[in-house]
Amino acid sequence: MTRGQTGSRGVAVLGSTGSIGTTALRVIARQSGRFRVAALTAFANSTLLAEQAAATNPGYVGLVSPNGAVPPASWHTGASSLVEAATRSDVDIVLNAVVGAAGLDATLAALEAGKRVALANKETLVVAGELAAAACARGGGEIVPVDSEHSAILQCLGRRDRSDVARLIITASGGPFRTWTSDAIGAATLADALCHPTWSMGRKITVDSATLANKALEVIEAHFLFGLPYERIEVVVHPQSVVHSMVEFVDGSVLAQMGVPSMELPVLYALTHPERVRDDGVPRFDPVAHSPLTFEPVRLADFPALRLGLEAGRNGGAAPAVFNAANERAVGLFLEGKMQFADIATSIEAALAQFGSMKAGDKSALLAADAAARAFVATRAGRS
Ligand code: NAD
Ligand code: MG
User: Fold this and answer.
1) Whose CA is nearest to atom 23 of ligand 1?
2) Spatial distance between the Cα atoms of 141 and 115, rounded to a whole number of angstroms
3) Whose CA is closest to atom 31 on ligand 1?
């Protein structure tokens, strides 16, 4: 990895105004000897972006959608600012904290340009896992996950060969509806869904954690990151969110990575991997205070979005992209009060039935499947 003149590594923080983006800026500020902010991008929050730019003095600032505001002349605008930020020569690491498939082009471009992508934007791998692998192979880039479960798995794997691994066990908090009956879940309100028991996150992933669609996205993400078949990736509910995931090795030994539910460590580790550095901002773990730790089977029948996502992953082709696009659109409508909670899963199911077998040979085919699924979900919601 290249180092800038100061010896620090330049980081482009894409989605800097969001939950992961603001965490990343705190981590980088604490580690200012090692990392510097080289570029920032946000969707529309120009006020916070301006504050961040003033505090970190990056060489590039991008605002995707100025929304009527007049940004400073030195800023860049439009969706192309993500790829521009991600491929700059003063950028060593691209921390992709954009939400949704909108982050795809920047991930692929950064990998082609040989960068490390510290990837929070799991949708990238769900939509185009094979394309990301090909971009790594061509450009020499690498993906290091930010998602806490995948960071845990990476830390448990260490330098071991994949042939030593029997299975991955991904933990799920179970979300706000873990103990609710199926009928009650179907009638859940937006306020219910946004009330996550253990994690404070952006609105889209918070809803995904209530439907458990997030866990399906994470299983697909793990499949592409670690190269294991789906039958060797399991999900278990762990309400305390302290064991971030586990790896079982062929001899039966199980390693787990643990810690307080906080994204400070996964973000830090994605920047420093495989090194570990001292960081006082990572909350310390007290085993007694966090007792007891419990595990439960996942209720697949009551969380159809999870079942549909797992099936889409196993079916492959365009199905994961359709699953993701239908989910993104349905969650968007749910957040706008235009869709019931239970309709998120029924929309996904209908979209997969229509478009799940579409062609998936290249990026344009995947984007066509993505667009068809989004349009279908919106039209279907408008009819009901
Ligand atoms: P968020 O909504 O808080 O932030 C999203 C960021 O992306 C914002 O800066 C926003 O301006 C930007 N953005 C949104 N739409 C965009 C678009 N179309 N083009 C460009 N930029 C856009 O979301 P978050 O919770 O920080 O999550 C970001 C990503 O990280 C998601 O993929 C999520 O699944 C993943 N993730 C989040 C957490 C968490 O704790 N928040 C944990 C694991 C993974
Ligand atoms: Mg996660």
Assistant:
1) 202
2) 5
3) 99
Residue 310: pLDDT band (50, 70, 90) is: very high
Give the span between the Cα atoms of 72 and 45, in whole angstroms. Answer: 13
Q: Specify whether the CB–CB gap between 10 and 38 falls below 8 A.
A: yes
Q: Which amino acid is at 376?
A: F
**CA 235 to centroid of ligand 1, rounded, Å:** 23
Is the CB of 15 within 6 Å of ligand 1? Answer: yes
In whole angstroms, give the CA distance from residue 289 to residue 7: 40
Tokens linked to 47: 């006020």
Instruction: Return the best residue to mutate from 26, 45, 51, 98 for the ligand 1 pocket (most ligand atoms within 8 A of CB).
Output: 98
> Within 8-147, where are the H helices?
19-30, 46-56, 80-86, 104-112, 123-139
Say how far apart CA 224 and CA 236 lie, in whole Å.
Answer: 20
144 lines ligand 1 (CB under 6 A): no
pLDDT of residue 203: 97
pLDDT of residue 197: 86
DSSP string for 166-212: EEEEEEE---TTTTS-HHHHHT--HHHHT--SS----HHHHHHHHHT
Q: 384: CA distance to ligand 2 center in Å?
A: 32
Is the model's pLDDT at 384 over the cut of 80? no
pLDDT tens by residue, 72-130: 999 999 999 999 999 999 999 999 999 999 999 999 999 999 999 999 999 999 999 99
18 lines ligand 1 (CB under 6 A): yes
Query: Which protein residue's CA is at the shortest distance from atom 25 of ligand 1?
Result: 202
pLDDT at 1: 44
Q: Is the pLDDT of residue 4 over 50?
A: no
Tell me, using a 6 A CB cutoff, whether residue 196 lines ligand 1: no
Establish whether the linkage from the previous residue to 297 is cis, with ω within 30° of 0. no
**Is the distance from the beta carbon of residue 135 to the nearest atom of ligand 1 less than 6 Å?**
no
> Residue 205: pLDDT above 60?
yes
* Ligand 1 in reach of 265 Cβ (< 6 A): no
Residue of the CA atom closest to atom 41 of ligand 1: 201
124 CA distance to ligand 1 middle (Å): 12
Q: Is the pLDDT of residue 8 over 90?
A: yes
Q: Is 50 exceeded by the pLDDT of residue 196?
A: yes
